[in-house]
Structure formats: C-alpha cells, structure tokens
Amino acid sequence: MWHNKILGVNLTTRKIEIQPLDDGFVKRYLGGRALGVKLFRQFGMVEPEDAPLIFVSGPLAPYGAPAACRISLVSRSPLTRTIFDSNAGGALSLRLKNCGVDGIIIEGRAKKTSVIKVTPKGASIEEAQGSENATVGEFTAKLSRNVSSAVVGPAAFSGFKFANVMVDRYGAFGRGGLGRLFALKNLKAVVVEAPLKVQKPIHKERYEMAVKAVLRLFTASPAVKALSAFGTPFLVGITNWLSLLPVNNFRAGGCSEAESLCAENIPAISTAKRAGCFGCPIRCKRRSNDDALPEFETIALVGASCGVFDYDAVRLVNRIANEQGVDTISLGGTLAAFFELCGIKPDGKRLVETVKNLFSGLREFEILKEGAHKMCEIEGAPSVSMCVKGLELPGYDPRGATGMALAYATSNRGACHLRAYMVGPEILRKPRPLSRFSFDGKAGYLRVFQDRFSMCDSLGVCKFAFFAATEEEYAELLSAASGVGYSAEDLMRIGSETYDSERRYNEACGFSKSDDRLPERFFKEKASETVDALKKESFDAALSEYYSIRSW
Amino acid sequence: MKEIIKYGKKIVEAHLTHSHFGNISKRIGDKLLITATGSMLDELEGEIVEVSLDSATSLDVIASTEVKVHRAIYKAASALAVIHTHSPYAVVLSLVCKDYIEPVDSEGKLVLHRIPIIDGEIGSDELARNAASALSVSKAAVIRGHGPITRGNTLDEAFVYACCVEHSCKVAYLALLLKNPSKRRKR
Fold first, then answer.
1. pLDDT tens string A200-236
2. What is the 3-state secondary structure of A267-292?
3. Which residue among A241, A430, A432 sits closest to B59, beta carbon to beta carbon?
4. Is A72 helix (H, G, I), strand (E, B) or coil?
C-alpha cells in the first residue's frame, strides 16, 4: 500500500510539509531501499555532514505480511563516505504507514537538540535539550507503549562514527554510523505514534493463498527452523566448524575455544524469551531480563575476533553497546584491530574494561571512535584494519567463502554480508549449495544475489525470509495485497537498477574499481589448516568477470 | 570421510538414486558423519558434516534434512552406517503395497525376508520414529513414495542391502507385470 506522500521536515527552518509523490514513481520504486535511494539522489552530491536522512517503509508492512515489516534509512555514511542504506525491523515501518505517509525526509540542523514526533494528525519538532547523554534505554523508557522510535544514544553525540540509530530500543539501523548524522543534525529521536492497524489486502483470497505459500516454505526450511530455535547464534557453530569464524582479528578462522560460544552450549539462549518484528513468524530475537542477547555477528566480532571466548563478557559489551547506540560489528572490528595494534590478548574482564573506558570518554581511547580503518591509518598500520571501503568485516572469513569475498569487495556500502548474502548458498547451502572454495561462476551468482537482496530491502522483507521463499512468492504477495501486478522479474529489475544507481553515486563521490579490494591478509595468510589464503589471480579474474556482467 | 565419498559414487553408479537425492551417514563413537544438505552423492569431497549423535546441534542446519532420522536409527538399532536412496522400483512398490514388500527373488527372500514400508514426511519426527522402529528389527525399510533406508555395521553392508532392496523390488515388479496380463487373459 502506498500513500504517495512523504513527510518533509527541515530542522533548520522548522518547516514541516507533506510532499506529494507521483503514483507511478512510487509504484515503480516500491519503497524501502529503492525508493530511498531514488529520493536521496534527487539531492545531488552532498557531504555526509549535510546529507538528508530518508526513511522509507516497505510496501508490504501495512498488511502484516510474513517477515515484511522493515523500514530503510538512506543517507551518506560518515564512516564509509559512500551512499548508505540500512534497514530495521520492529514496528516502525507499519506505524509510519499508519500516519498516512510512505516515509520521512529530514534536512537541516536544529539549533537545539530535538525530537521529531509523527502522528496521523501531523508532525512536530520538539526540543529535547539535555537528552544527548540519555542512553537508548533511558530515553525509550519514557515513551508510551503505542509508539515506535528511532533513537540515538550518547555515542552519536560524542563522535562515534559507527553510531547506530536504535529502533524500538533493541533493533537498529546498523552499520555505517547513520546515528552520527542524527547527532550532527541535533536530532535525538524520531518518535512515531500510531496504532498497529493492519490493512485489508485488495485480493483477499489470493493474498491468503500467497501467505500460506510463504509460511509453508518457512516451515520446511532448516535455516528458518534453526533461527526459531536458537536465533542467529546458531551460526557460531557452523562458521567455527567451517573455519569461517574470525578469530584474533581474522588472523585465524575458527578455533576449539570458540565452541564455548556456540548456541547449544549457552544455557541463556535456550532459556531466553523469543521475540521478533511485527508480523514475523520466525521470531529470531532473544530477550532475557530486559536485555537483548547478542546476535551472531556480535558474538563473532566482539567475542572471537577479539580473542575472547567468554559469553558473559560478550553479553555485557552487547548491552553497553545497545545502550550507548553503536554498531557491534564495527565495535568488535575496531577493538580487535586495537588489541592487535597494542599486542594485547584480552580476556573477558579486559574486554569489558576497555569498552567501559572507551565510552567513558578517556582520551587515549578517542581514536577508536573513528572505526578500525581510520584508527589503523592514523597509527601507521593500515594492514591491521580488516575493512573494505572503511567498513569493518562481519563474521564470515572470506578465505573460506569466495562468493562472500567478492561480495565484500563489490558492496556499495563496504564490507557487508547483507548486500549479497552469499551466506545462503555458500554456508547454509540454500537455496542450493555452491562450492565455497571455487570462484567458478561466482561472478554471475553474485550479481543475482546483489539484485535479489536490493529488491528484498526495497520490499521491506527480512533477508531470513529468503532462506526459504523467493522473489516469486513475494511478487505474488505484493500483487495480491496491492492490486498492482508485479512479476519476479519486475522485482529483480528494481533491485538491479538500485544497485547500479548506488554504484554510480559512489563513483561520483570518487570511488572506483580500485576500492573494490580486500585486506591483504586474506591473500597472504591461511585461515586454518583446511582453509588457504585466497588466490589473487583467481579473485581478480572473478572480479573482471563480474564487472563485465554488470557492464561496469 | 573417504569411505562415504566412495559409496556415494557407487550408489549413483548403481542407479540407486540420482546424484542430488539420498544421503549417507556413518557413526564414529558419539559423532555422526553425514552428507550435507543439497550435496550430490557422486561429488562428496568437502560435503560431509560432523554432528552429535546425542542431540540436535546448530550443525544440523547444514547436514542432510534426514539427519534426525539417521540419529534415531543409530539410537534404536545396532548400526554403524545408514544409507538412504530414492531407488525407483522400491518407490513404486511402496506406493502399491500396504505394509511391506515381499521379495520373490531367492536372495531377497533370504537376506531381507520382508521389507517394511514406513510413513512420514521428509525429516519429520514421525519418520524418525517409524524408521527407528522398523530398522531395529529389519536391515532395510522403504519410506512410502520416497525410497529405501538401510543400515549396516559397515557402509559396505548398508550398500549391499540398498542394492538388494532395489534388485528385489525390480524383480517383484517385473514378475507382477508379467503375472497380471495373464490374469487378465484368464478373465
């Protein structure tokens, strides 16, 4: 469902207006990432510090479709300086649609720290001076229950370039430091107050059939079942066994100590309460005593990559990071590089101590706020930074998954596993297994997966849904719900156009093929006895093939 | 692992299954080596997963979807190897027979006696229960409309039973086919 309206908020002039959007334009770009990128590009070239923040809901959110309540935030990253989209779950997407708009564009800079409030009756800018140092938990605790919120913590205001925008307290617009842009605009939060009312689909019976088809696939998928049973930490055991789990800042892939971090060995995971985003039957989140348990990526980066195999320490750091509002992948990647630079082998206590020092504003830790790439550059040791385009690598060692290696290198937002999510075929063997050590045919697959997940982000659908379902099922779902006919090809075309558009923007920002590279460590050192270093010639050949397939 | 790779190739060469179907496992102490989900039985290099025999772990996600069934068989029967194929004659007979397939060839009669037919969806608890119960007394069973599952103390033994099931089913099917036209002529 589309309203063909976007809420414009200018924090400098305090002007708030509803901007009409052309019906054909909205239906062509669906919502989420595709529509957000299209709207962002209308602003031309802008520096991250001046860039607008563009929120766009997914078109399936109003129907409560399975795993389809995500919302995108598009801007330009202060960390990578690329165009940057991030998406989050919770209920924000639906509530925003129920305010009668498809998204929000925020421009300018408020004189004093402010909060934007949005309701079905209109929007307002309210002063929130003194809230800069309020943690995410403290701020959201004061909000009423029928609101969704996008909030930044103290880290955003104290200069962390990997500050998140936290959604409904525990979710996040992660990676890339879009939270820092909130602080640069003197914006503490966007609070959306609206009921969680679901719309009737245009073709009710057809829609119900389409929902059943998706749910049937969810039920049959081993990966979806594992997500329901353990949450994302089920990946720790698999990545460790395959020598893909980063250990000691990617100096090794997997190790026996990491078994203590495996989901099945952690009682807190099996006893925790399951939670999930609005309308999602998977419910992959875990909560315990008002605490969100760490996701796989946090365990991998804050734990194993820092050489810490103490789950309780990782859990505590995760809690601090969520309260402060920083990205745990970037935090872990930066800490791992910091420990390597200092020659420290931390235990759980040392890790927690370092994190507390970092957030207490100690001067000697100031440099970590820049992220691993900049920190290592300043320290004169760029080879220690495990980043691509300034973004820290997530929890899958590229030496043991060649498609992921190419995906990291060519991602439009730096080292991100979610752009092409080759985790599916190379690690979880879905939708069908691909040899993880060979580059053969990977360039073609990479393009398909980049386009697919760009489309997935534009529909506001969770990537986990694609462990089971495909664009075919979601095209039918969208067609039945909206009454507008979409084929799987239509959706993939939108995904592809968006990916190309992001690339063109980055090129205009000065990025080129020479930025599509991985840290040298992956070509020089093996990950384990069974996983060798990547072969440079094979990697370069696959990259050339990829450019030719993309016509870049 | 080498043995699993060898028998994976043999199973496909013997036309007991097409490359993409079926699964093989071997018990080693309290661990289970099992073919990965979506693997091709004639190309198993690097496609074998080690899981716990005791209970499900996160590695089950990348193991064969029938891992639960294999685990249940090892717990219930004296077995160190399990093979599951999609052999066509066995599948066909499982759809026309009720509770078991009666071999008519001399070897099948001797080695297999009766082959129980069991029910259950792929990778389900029901199938795991039924397979464990059938294989605790028989060397082989056929999952209705799906394919045979055999056990042995070695992979070689489980492979012999898998070959024997398909041979017996083929002979029984052909015999049935020749018998029925004569019955029709008599009528």
1. 999 999 999 999 999 999 988 888 988 888 899 999 9
2. HHHHHCEEECCCCCCCCCEEEECCEE
3. A241
4. strand
Query: Domains in chain B: how many in total?
Result: 1
Is residue A394 reached through a cis peptide bond, with omega within 30 degrees of 0 on the bond before it? no
Q: Which two tokens stand for residue A20?
A: 């009409």
Q: Which residues of A touch B39 (CB under 8 A)?
A: 429, 433
Measured N-to-C along each axis, helices A442-459 and A536-550 cross at an angle, to the nearest 10 degrees, of 60
Place of tokens 């399975």: A66
pLDDT by residue (tens digit) across B147-175? 999 999 999 999 999 999 999 999 999 99
A466 phi, psi to nearest 5 deg: -85, 0
Name the residue among A238, A433, A437 with its Cβ closest to that of B58: A238
Q: Which of B10, B6, B12 is nearest to B26 (CA)?
A: B6
CB contact under 8 A, B58 and A222: no
Read off φ and ψ for residue A211, nearest 5 degrees.
-65, -45
CB A437 to CB B46 under 8 A? yes
Q: Pairing relation of β-strands A187-193 and A114-119?
A: parallel
Tokens 């043995």 label which residue? B3
A36-65 residue pLDDT tens = 999 999 999 999 999 999 999 999 999 999
Closest CA to A240 of B109, B178, B58: B58
Interface pTM, i.e. ipTM: 0.79
Give the whole-angstrom CA distance, residue B187 versus residue B179. Answer: 13
Amino acid letter, residue A78: P
CA of A48 vs chain B CAs: smallest distance (Å): 41
Q: What's the CA gap between A358 and A155, in Å, rounded? A: 10
pTM of the full predicted structure? 0.92
Q: Cβ of A226 and B60 within 8 Å?
A: yes
Chain A residues with CB inside 8 Å of B50's CB? 241
Q: At B11, which CATH number?
A: 3.40.225.10
Sign of CA dihedral A247, A248, A249, A251: negative
H helices of A221-363, in order, are: 222-230, 234-241, 267-271, 296-298, 311-324, 328-342, 348-359
Structural domain boundaries, residue B95: 2-186
Is there a contact between A234 and B58 if contact means CB atoms under 8 Å apart?
A: yes
In chain A the domains, ranked by start, together with CATH numbers, are: 5-193 (3.60.9.10), 245-390 (1.10.569.10)
Tell me the C-alpha distance between A160 and A169, whole Å.
19
A415 Cβ under 8 Å from any chain B Cβ = no
Task: Please state, in angstroms and as integers, the Cα–Cα distance from residue A502 to each residue in A73, A86, A495, B153, following that order.
Answer: 14, 13, 11, 58
Chain A residues in contact with B123 (beta carbon < 8 A): 222
CA distances in angstroms from B32 to A427, B37, B74, B82, B130, listed in the order given: 19, 14, 9, 10, 20
SS (H, E, C) A416-453: CCCCCCCHHHHCCCCCCCCCCCCCCCHHHHHHHHHHHH
A contacts of B57 (beta carbons < 8 Å)? 237, 262, 264
Please tell me the distance in Å from B59's CA to the nearest CA on chain A: 5
Could you say which DSSP state residue B102 is in? -
